[in-house]
């Protein structure tokens, strides 16, 4: 393989490894939102 091809392959592998490390260590905050849903009384036994 040519030097340029090897350089591009190494660059892609380093980028993929860096992206994987970033995603593995990133603490994504959980979405916070209030949910209000009206449940009809017919669903509950009496």
Describe this structure in words.
The chain is an all-alpha fold and 46 residues long. The protein has one helix spanning 3-25. 0% of the residues are buried.
* Beta strands, count: 0
Strand content: under 5%
Q: Structural class, judged by helices and strands? A: mainly alpha
Cα-based radius of gyration, to the nearest Å: 25 Å
Mean pLDDT: 92
Instruction: Give the low-pLDDT segments.
Output: none
Q: Summarize the main sheet.
A: none
Order of helices and strands: H
Percent in helix: 40-55%
Distance between the termini: 76 Å
- Number of helices, where a helix is a run of at least 4 consecutive DSSP H or I residues: 1
Q: What characteristic shape results from the CA principal axes?
A: rod-shaped
Brief sketch in words of this structure:
The chain is built from 1 helix and no strands. With 46 residues, it is an all-alpha fold.
Considering the chains and any ligands shown, give keywords for the structure.
46 residues, mainly alpha
């Amino acid at each position: 393989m040519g030097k340029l091809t090897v350089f591009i392959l190494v660059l892609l592998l380093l980028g993929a490894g860096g992206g994987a490390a970033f995603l593995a260590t990133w603490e994504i905050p959980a979405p916070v939102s209030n949910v209000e849903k009206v449940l009809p009384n017919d669903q509950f036994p009496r």
